[in-house]
Design brief:
There is one protein chain. By secondary structure, the protein is an alpha+beta fold. It has three domains: 118 residues, Nuclear Transport Factor 2, Chain: A; 171 residues, Penicillin-binding protein 2a (Domain 2), CATH 3.90.1310.10; 234 residues, Beta-lactamase (3-Layer(aba) Sandwich). The strands form seven sheets. A six-stranded mixed sheet has the order 1-3-4-5-6-2. Strands 8, 9, 10, 11, 16 and 22 form a six-stranded mixed sheet that branches.
């Protein structure tokens, strides 16, 4: 009677008796072990061949390796060419027949894992074990011998939206039209016509067409994605062009192409670089976030398409299925009204790069983060600029927390010599017998050099940190990269002198300066937040500031507007404005230039404005202040 065994990873212990009976038992065990090993070898060979898609390298009983390989290709063609993992599980043998459980995991074209257990029959023919071909499929237990898989990727899902305060839709799903070229049907003439319609360089799309045709590629060539209104303007010209396709789908869009850029980012075709970096996630033909928040939170926003695997001709028999799932919307603190006002105000700077950040004073939430131009770097978040006299807010906080009185008379000469180096006021202005209140209002550099001379090397850094400059609040913000600023410990008298008015080695982003003003306005430092769901990490517990110093700064920053370097802000609708101007000097290609700043708050809105490059002679009060005034005015009247 044949012996039935179950093969597992570990072999069983064997009791060997003495004499003839013991020999027979040992001999039978040897024969059984050889049978078991033969069955396992046949199963392992099939698993390896399957995983490598070289099914003609396995051993079969009842068909040829070539026939089995062809049957495999026909049966599994719909599953695609994704990675396959096949491992051998339990093997149960009964004499010269056995069954091996193969654990199969097949990656479908959209990245989903179709996994099943395939009980493969094995048989011994002569002295060789092989895979037995019968009246059932070798490739899945619920397929017939001549059956095949069918894959339905039907069912669509939408990408998550980007939301702002109160659930306002910052980027909402809207119809878009992808214009592509079918290299099989397109003609040279139709592609030349398309170049003129979409504004491509003459010959650029033609070159892509020739490349695709010479390589035999049948995949469509992406050209441009139009908003619905833009497509409507070009529809008549595009329709009817041979091989030019317009495919409708939905995609999150902001109110204009430039709104919230580059912060919000864009959605588009995945690039070859993205696929190379993460082939398990990205595949050719996919759409994904390619920049900004859309890229950072792509795994949250991206939808999951539906897919079902069935036997061909039996759609009611579900072998694998997953319903489509919409992406999750991203919740931010942005206020579309405030963002629109910020972007409108920046148009005043023309082609000069600029940025404007607005923060809610009560909560520390970011209300607006605007950049001009809207393409390129996110200078509002990542820019590294000398903050100029806006840093005098921090320097003054250092003085006030050390017992300094604003009623102290601090001379404001046109220039001053520190360790043999001459340091002057921006326009060599001077004040007659001023108190520190007047020095602050008129932004006198030489007075700040004198006033801060006795501070310890780390005092200005400590003050800046207390106000939020140089503190790592990137986790609480929920977006990166971000530059939070740097006010180093000073290394000598001249370094300390220049640092007191935001030059030397001091650096900040517009975001960092807005955080500083928000801290002074509320009387505590709260790490700013921009993305709130998914919930970012980090603690946002307010850290109280020195109340007396904060009260003094309120008076000083109001004086800047009523009787100082920020008088442009007078008459701004919405109430009293508290501000500090900044003019940071630098040299580029041997040419002296300045960066113009204004920071402060009005009511519950703290802000910082940077105009990146202006000619010498212009100041924060004459260049950045008008931008800030336009911004605040729009909030009241827009």
């Amino acid at each position: 009677m044949p012996r039935s065994t179950v093969l597992t990873a570990a072999g069983a212990g064997v009791l060997v008796a003495g004499g003839i009976g013991g020999y027979m038992l040992w001999h039978q065990h040897q024969q059984s072990s050889e049978q078991d090993e033969g069955a396992r070898t046949a199963a392992t060979t099939l698993a390896t061949a399957w995983q490598n898609r070289k099914l003609d390298q396995a051993t079969y009983v009842g068909t040829s390796p070539t026939g089995a390989a062809e049957n495999f290709r026909t049966t599994t063609r719909a599953l695609g060419s994704g990675p396959i993992k096949v491992t051998v599980g339990k093997i149960q043998r009964d004499g010269n027949a056995a069954t091996a459980d193969l654990q199969v995991s097949w990656t479908l074209s959209d990245g989903k894992q179709f996994a099943w257990t395939d009980p493969v029959p094995l048989a011994k023919s002569g002295n060789t074990w092989g895979v037995k071909v019968g009246d059932k499929s070798l490739w899945h237990p619920r397929l017939t011998a001549d059956g095949a898989f069918s894959v339905d990727a039907g069912g669509s899902a939408t990408r998550g939206e980007i939301l702002g305060r109160g659930g306002a839709k910052i980027m909402a799903n809207q119809n878009v039209y992808d214009i592509t070229i079918d290299p099989v049907k397109a003609t040279d003439q139709s592609v030349r016509s398309l170049e003129g319609i979409v504004g491509s360089s003459p010959g650029s799309l033609g070159a892509k067409l020739k490349k695709a045709q010479s390589s035999g590629s049948k995949g469509t060539i992406a050209v441009i994605t139009y908003r619905e209104s833009d497509y409507a303007a070009h529809k008549g010209s595009i329709e009817g062009l041979p091989g030019i396709l317009a495919t409708e789908r939905q995609q999150p869009l902001a109110q204009t192409r430039t709104f919230g850029q580059p912060l919000l980012g864009t959605v588009g075709h995945v690039t070859a670089e993205m696929i190379k970096k993460d082939p398990q996630r990205y595949r050719e033909g996919m759409y994904a976030g390619t920049s900004g928040l859309q890229e950072t939170y792509d795994s949250t926003l991206a939808p999951t398409s539906g897919v079902t695997v069935t036997p061909r001709g039996s759609s009611d028999v579900i072998l694998f299925g997953q319903k489509p799932r919409n992406g999750t919307s991203l919740q931010t603190t942005l206020d579309p009204k405030v963002q629109a006002a910020a972007e409108k105000a920046l148009t005043k700077t023309g082609k000069t790069p600029s940025a404007l950040v607005a923060i809610d004073v009560k909560s520390g939430d970011v209300l607006a983060l605007a950049n001009s131009p809207s393409y390129g770097i996110n200078r509002a978040l990542t820019g590294r600029y000398q903050p100029g006299s806006t840093l005098k807010v921090s320097s003054t906080y250092a003085l006030l927390t050390k017992g300094f009185s604003t009623s102290t008379k601090v001379p404001c000469p046109p220039d001053i010599v520190v360790d043999g180096r001459r340091i002057g006021n921006f326009e060599r202005e001077t004040l007659s017998d001023p108190t520190f209140v007047e020095d602050f209002a008129h932004s006198c550099n030489t007075a700040f050099v004198k006033a801060t001379a006795d501070l310890a090397p780390g005092d200005m850094r400590t003050a800046a940190t207390a106000l939020g400059i140089g503190v790592d609040w990137s986790k609480q913000l929920g977006v990166g990269p971000v530059f939070t600023g740097s006010v180093p410990v000073t290394t000598g008298k001249t370094d300390q002198a220049a640092a007191s008015f935001g030059q030397a080695r001091t650096l900040a982003s517009p975001m960092a300066i807005a955080v500083m003003s928000g801290s002074v306005a509320r009387g505590s430092f709260i790490p700013p937040a921009l993305v709130t769901n998914p919930k970012p990490g980090g603690d946002r517990t307010p850290k109280p500031l020195n109340a007396g110093a904060v009260q003094e700064l309120h008076s000083l920053m109001r004086k800047v507007v009523t009787d100082g370097s920020g008088t442009v802000m007078q008459g701004t609708p919405g109430g009293d404005v508290y501000a500090k101007t900044g003019t940071a000097e630098f040299t580029q290609d041997g040419k002296p230039l300045v960066r113009a700043w204004l920071t402060g708050w009005q009511g519950d809105v703290a802000f910082a404005v940077l105009v990146e490059e202006v000619a010498t002679g212009q100041t924060g009060g004459t260049v950045a202040a008008p931008v800030a005034k336009d911004f605040l005015t729009s909030l009241q009247t827009g």
